[in-house]
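To assess whether the prediction recovers the assembly geometry, we first specified each molecular entity separately, as shown.
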Amino acid sequence: MALLLFDLVLCALLLLLAGAAMLSRSLTQAVTLFIAFGVMMALAWARLKAPDLALAEAAIGAGLTGALCFTALVRYAKQPAYPQPALWRPLTFIGLVTALLLASLSQIPLQPSSAIPALVQQHLPQSGVSHPVTAVLLNFRAWDTLLELLVLLLALLGARQAPGDLPRYRGWSLSISWSRLLSPLLLLVSGYLLWRGAAAPGGAFQAGALLASGLVILRLNQQLSWLSWRHFWVRMLVLGGLLAFVLAGAVSLLLQDLGAVWLSWPQSIAGAVILIVESFATLAIAVTLTLLVVGEPKPEVADA
Amino acid sequence: MTIMLMISWLLLALGLMFFLAGSIGLLRFPDSFSRLHAVTKADTLGLGLLVLGLSLQSSWREGLLMALIWLIVMASGAVSCQLLARFSDEQPSESATQQED
Amino acid sequence: MLSFYLYLGTAVLLVGIGGLGLWRGPELLRRILALNVIGAGIFMLMVTLAYRPVMQGEPADSVLHALVLTGLVVAVSATAFALALLGRLLTRAD
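The predicted structure of the complete assembly is given in tokenized form:
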């Protein structure tokens, strides 16, 4: 009963925050409400027994998306206010479609019919890790993760083609010293998440997102100035996740029999391969997300 | 045992009161400085009371973790409050300046 | 059981709210936020479907969790790309 009350409050809060973010007059309010929405989503994932997602959402939805949206908001400051369009036409249409979708929800069976979860449980001992989500991500469906790293790289390359110049924020002593205090802590926690991912909720994505938020904090406080695309080793870090993945795939193809499938690890060294690939993937995800969020410092103009 | 439980629930209720007061302040105060004041100070204290109340009902390890979380939230709340106040270009409103005199 | 349908309904309503914001706008930034709300609704639908085994006392469906985890990271990178394009658009409009 208490749990149902919690669910009701959480769902109402999620819907209210999303609705207010979509309908509020000022864009600043919309962005702020959207960030609050991200935090509440993390709570919802935790409630729905998805701790991996809650960890990732807390780092991404509350940290990185907030920094991204506020950066975009700065650019809107110079724009004139937009007129508020009429509501009734979209409301009628979308309300109709949503009502139909809601009515169709009763068709969803309560018993899951898919055999895949049982298969995951059955093959978990051979995967090299004991946490099913990590096993799926880095062993059973390693293709997805490989291509996901490629998508991240493509997003970064695309964003680099559209540089926009932003007013640089001069650091302030209090926030700089706090960022120096906070970043080793974030590094520690992300390393812990990466290591724990083999047996418990955690892994490359959560660790990478958390590390990225730490790097973003440092970069916004005028530190880590070497962390830009121009630096050779930074580029190598960004590519490192993909390279480590492909190399691991090639080596395990050579180590296995002729009929082996691409990106299937030999059972005896699966744990080690997953840890190596995850470490490089964490660094790649962290650096890529950081570069996506904070962009490039302008090369010539120094803050004198 | 039951006395501990009662103290714990009392602390939890008190913490919620502070959260409520901070949120009302956030909604009702006239300018951004007093809003910041309300939300950071009251929420930090409220969170501390919640942590204290919950740690009475949990093991010492969980209590220590929650206390650490409270420390970090307190410090980052203080820093972000100062940052927001520093970079908001709003002047303090009439009523707020009068109260300072 | 009741919570299951509650979260399913919330997921669908989130998609609806996001669709409303996507249609109505008016700013491009709000449309990008709306796309993210739609994405959150779809993720919630998947995670709620993955929750079904929990009601029978089994662990949740890890394949769906892994898919949503990948989706979260892809969504934030796509948002960053969209915002970079938006920034370019706004600086050119000046």
